[in-house]
Specification:
The structure is a single chain. By secondary structure, the chain is α/β, with parallel strands linked by helices. It has helices at 46-59, 77-85, 102-112, 126-133, 138-150, 171-180, 199-202, 206-214, 281-284, 289-301, 321-324, and strands spanning 13-17, 63-67, 92-97, 116-120, 157-162, 184-189, 219-221, 232-236, 242-246, 259-262, 267-269, 278-279. The protein has eleven helices and twelve strands. β1 (13-17), α1 and β2 form a beta-alpha-beta unit. It binds S-adenosylmethionine (SAM) and iron/sulfur cluster.
Length: 326
């Protein structure tokens, strides 16, 4: 079954957030202090999250990404993942993590059926990493990547949020990680999640990121796979891995969008940047799976053609990436 939105895009990808909590405080995602925690009762139970995942697969979702907050801090995540992995018709179960808990958990995640990991890593320098995450220890993440390798995961996708004057000097270093290892590095334009007056000065447009890499390496375009989303992918000529840019701010993005989101409180969202969304909780009150399926179809039906964020607009709607799941 195919799920097609009003603009002819095939929607086959659900990002499912299991918590808003996190063991880091990345400056671009959360305030340093005073993070308002959702009450335990506001977070959907694993049973409800599972029912949403199953209903989504029944109507045409083929890939589910588990995200957060930091998904690995929620107790009981491994058996939950094993249940999701067993949903008939689901072709890919992947997870996005900051990597801190992978040293202990990578082997169990692999056994549970997670097929691939995206690891967020914004600096290869311990001091810059600490400054961005406020509390993080880079070595833990590097150990986590090694643990994922040892557990038999395919080489990870590494997501780097590029910020001018903070870590943009490391773009070429990250690109070079793909030369010897068949990993994927994706450069994400910094988005105005928190309300900052000067956010545009932090965003490095994807074009500039590619130009910087091209200054020392020849890039060739890479064909998109079945689940490819809005990333534009390239390979350094002769490299084992690939790299890509996600240009949510500077454009060329929405036409290829294949995703919907559900937050840990049960809000279904058709677009990261839209205030539109609706609460799935009332649809979880009945045990009839068709009602939940129809609710999910509705969210696909109202998916906008493109997001309203403009690189030139100073005013914007602040939102919490940790609550939505990125
Ligand atoms: N804690 C996990 C992690 O960091 O990978 C999963 C949740 S995190 C909200 C998902 C993704 O959103 C991460 O790759 C993170 O870098 C990205 N993200 C968060 N805030 C962002 C922002 N302001 N601009 C661009 N990407 C952002
Ligand atoms: Fe936590 Fe991920 Fe947000 Fe960083 S980006 S604060 S690791 S949820």
């Amino acid at each position: 079954m195919e799920l097609i939105d009003s603009f002819g895009r095939r929607i086959n990808y659900l990002r499912l957030s299991v918590t808003d909590r996190c063991n880091l405080r990345c400056s671009y995602c959360m305030p340093a202090e005073g993070v308002e925690k959702l009450a335990h009762g506001d977070i959907l139970s694993y049973e409800d999250l599972f029912r949403i995942a199953r209903a989504a697969v029944a109507i045409g979702i083929e890939k589910i990404r588990i995200t957060g907050g930091e998904p690995l801090v929620r107790k009981g995540i491994v058996p939950f993942l094993a249940r999701i992995a067993a949903i008939e018709g689901l072709r890919q179960l992947v997870l996005t993590t900051n990597g801190l808990l992978l040293p202990e958990m990578a082997a169990d995640l692999r056994s549970a059926g997670v097929q691939r990991l995206n690891i967020s890593l914004d600096s290869l320098r311990a001091d810059t990493f600490r400054a961005i995450t406020r509390i993080g220890d880079l070595q833990r993440v590097l150990d986590g990547i090694a643990a994922a390798d040892a557990a038999g995961f395919p080489p990870p996708k590494i997501n780097m949020v590029v910020m001018r004057g903070i870590n943009d000097g490391e773009v070429a270093d990250f690109a070079r990680l793909t030369i010897d290892r068949p990993c994927t590095v994706r450069f994400i334009e910094y988005m105005p999640a928190t309300r900052e007056d000067n956010w545009q000065s932090l965003t490095v447009p994807g074009r500039e990121i590619l130009d910087r890499i091209s200054a020392s390496h020849e890039l060739e375009p890479v064909e998109k796979g079945a689940f490819a989303g809005p990333s534009r992918d390239f390979r350094i000529r002769g490299a084992a891995g690939t790299l890509g840019v996600i240009t949510a701010v500077s454009g060329h993005f929405c036409g290829d969008c294949n995703r919907v989101r559900v937050t840990s409180t049960g809000m279904a969202k058709s677009c990261l940047f839209s205030d539109e969304g609706f609460d799935l909780r009332p649809f979880l009150e009945t045990s009839d799976p068709i009602i939940l399926q129809e609710a999910l179809r509705r969210i696909v039906g109202v998916k906008p053609e493109r997001h309203g964020m403009s690189a030139y607009k100073a005013e914007h709607q602040a939102f919490s990436m940790a609550k939505i799941g990125g």
